[in-house]
Every structure is written in structure tokens, then in C-alpha cells.
Amino acid sequence: MKRRLLLAAAAAVLAASAAAAEPMPVGTFSSWKVYTSNEPDGKMCFVAAQPMDSKYSQVITSRDPVFFMITSIPAKKIKNEVSTIIGYAFGASATVQLDIDGMKSTMFTANTDTAWAMPENEAALVNALKAGSTLKVLGTSKRGTSTTDTYSLTGITAALQKMASECP
Fold first, then answer.
1. What are the pLDDT digits (tens) for 34-55?
2. What is the C-alpha to C-alpha distance for residues 156 and 106, in angstroms, rounded to an integer?
3. What is the domain count for the chain?
4. Domain range holding 89?
5. Phi, psi (5° rounding) for residue 87?
6. I want to staple 63 with a disulfide (CB 3.0 to 4.6 A). Which of 9, 71, 85, 87 is the partner?
7. What is the CATH classification number for the domain harbouring 157?
């Protein structure tokens, strides 16, 4: 079930065309999984994890699957693009806050369910993720519900190394 949800989320975020190949798992490192996909314009690789805990400011009735991802697409010169699929729609001009063992950063949204790190912050974020133990992702839905998703960072360094070997 989790694999199906992860593949659906990856397809939603990364589907560049109808001809895109289904992501194939190439490694699991604790809660982090590595996937590759051969796209029409080149190979894509990503690591993804789901939160180990989620907290809400009010009772919720449903939420779509949630993922934190790092993506590389060498042919497009994309390396370690940091994003999250939050599992609900953001409101206009929403931001997402990251907390990696006390190091804070802001992600931007585009009125969807996905947020991205600012490109100039990605290298520092990836280094903090590799050095950290816990990641918290804080967001607010367009309905006003605040969420805090907590991820273990155990295994992320090995997952990123595997991704780098697959998409150098």
C-alpha cells in the first residue's frame, strides 16, 4: 500500500509527460527509499520518505499521502531539488517551514499540495538533513489547519549516496 501511495505521489509531482516510465525502487535505507525513472528527456532519481508522526491543530477527516523528497535529473541540470507533498491544498501565498534539529528554513508553494525549497538554499538543506536526526515540516492548509509532520533522518545519507550513484 505504501509503495502504491509513494508511486502515485511521485507521478503527481514528477510526471513530465504521459510517456514517463513508472518509478522503480532501487534501494531502501531505513525510512528513506530511492527510486529511478527513465523519462523522455533523461533519467530521474529521487529519495522519498513518509512522516513517522503527524500532528494537527484541529481534528481532520482526511488527508492525502504525505512525502518529503529530494530529486535529481541530470539532463536538466537538477541536483538535489528539495520538496514536500503535504497532502492538502495550500492557501494563496502559503509557505512551509522546515526545522532540522533547530535549523529553520522556508519553502515556497504555488497554490498546490507541493512546496519547494529555494534553489539557493538546497545545498545547505541537504547538508543539514545528512547531519541531522529529525526533520519537522510545518504547514497550513487553505482551510486553516496547521500540521506538523516529523521525519526520521536515519538513512538519508545512504539514500542520497545511492541516488548520486544512479544519477551522477
1. 999 999 989 999 999 999 999 9
2. 20
3. 1
4. 2-166
5. 90, 10
6. 87
7. 2.60.40.1880
